[in-house]
């Protein structure tokens, strides 16, 4: 579970904070400045009761107000120049049978500045010297440290377990890819760029190869797996071949949703 926060400070009086939460690759929550945390899924409340969720909303309100005030205080004390951006990445990683990994990283103007480790604040490696001043100051507040530790070590893993349970159907969904071929801009005289497109699949892991018979073609270029707007994925794999050698090549697609039946497309 990853919570992302972006806080913009335009000047000493104008600020806003927005955020989102992600369970693996799926966004589960969002919050925009001045509003409650919104559910993006029917299961975003996990198995928490309304009362438990209400309490969590309260904690986040207090956090957001406190965060803004603290940063404005530090900006004044350390004579930081406006405008600036502060980002936070916080959450936990839960693996069956291994210890919980939780994290809280913050960045100033895009560079790591301060982390929460175990029970206290520590400056990030290579942070400017004033990060030391900030961490010393923050470490004086035992209540906030206890709260952050509680959120990271107790609440976060509870939320993960509870979201996994409530969202099981959505999280385990399988969506079959569609695949098609096209030709790209010719890479040179007498050459062809074969493009195999694979789209609309979920989850993300997929195997796509250009083949001749059972032989994988070396030199194929695999793009990044890109998100579609409907929370499925897209991938393209290209192959640069001499025009005379394209016949008989196939694009083969393997994905968990296909139940062992690969998609095979023949060039030409
Ligand atoms: C602070 O920034 C906001 C947003 O850019 C701007 O509208 C406002 O006039 C600024 N206020 C001051 C006092 O500079
Ligand atoms: C963001 O929310 C805070 C707290 O509700 C408010 O004081 C501030 O004016 C808001 N900022 C903007 C840009 O709306």
TrEMBL record:
Domain Ig-like: from-to ranges: 157-257
Regions annotated as coiled coil: none
GO biological-process terms attached to the record: antigen processing and presentation, endogenous lipid antigen via MHC class Ib; antigen processing and presentation, exogenous lipid antigen via MHC class Ib; innate immune response; positive regulation of T cell mediated cytotoxicity
A molecular-function term among this protein's GO annotations: endogenous lipid antigen binding
Subcellular location: Cell membrane; Endosome membrane; Lysosome membrane
Keyword Transit peptide: no
SMART domains per UniProt: IGc1
Physiological role: Antigen-presenting protein that binds self and non-self glycolipids and presents them to T-cell receptors on natural killer T-cells.
Xref: PANTHER family: ANTIGEN-PRESENTING GLYCOPROTEIN CD1D, MHC CLASS I-RELATED
The protein's name: Ig-like domain-containing protein
UniProt organism field: Myotis lucifugus (Little brown bat)
Source species taxonomy: Eukaryota, Metazoa, Chordata, Craniata, Vertebrata
């Amino acid at each position: 579970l990853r919570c992302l926060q972006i806080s913009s400070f335009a000047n000493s009086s104008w600020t806003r904070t927005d955020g989102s939460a992600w369970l693996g690759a799926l966004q589960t929550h969002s919050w925009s400045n001045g509003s409650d945390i919104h559910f993006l899924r029917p299961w975003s409340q996990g198995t928490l009761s309304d009362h438990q969720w209400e309490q969590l909303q309260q904690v986040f309100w207090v956090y957001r107000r406190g965060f803004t005030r603290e940063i404005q205080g530090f900006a004044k004390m350390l004579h930081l120049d406006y405008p600036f951006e502060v980002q936070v990445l916080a959450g936990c990683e839960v693996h069956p049978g291994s210890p919980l990994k939780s994290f809280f990283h913050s960045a100033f103007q895009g560079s790591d500045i301060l982390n929460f480790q175990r029970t206290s604040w520590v400056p990030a490696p290579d942070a400017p010297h004033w990060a030391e001043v900030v961490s010393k100051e923050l470490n004086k507040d035992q209540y906030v440290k206890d709260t952050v530790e509680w959120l990271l070590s107790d609440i976060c893993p509870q939320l993960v377990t509870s979201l996994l349970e409530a969202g099981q159907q959505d999280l385990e969904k399988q969506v079959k890819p569609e695949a098609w071929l096209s030709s790209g801009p010719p890479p040179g005289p007498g050459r062809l760029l074969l493009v195999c497109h694979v789209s609309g699949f979920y989850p993300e892991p997929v195997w796509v190869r250009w083949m001749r018979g059972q032989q994988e073609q070396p030199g194929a270029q695999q793009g990044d797996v890109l998100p579609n707007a409907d929370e499925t994925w897209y991938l393209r794999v290209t192959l640069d071949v001499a025009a005379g050698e394209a016949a008989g090549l196939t694009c083969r697609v393997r994905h968990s949703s296909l139940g062992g039946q690969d998609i095979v497309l023949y060039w030409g």
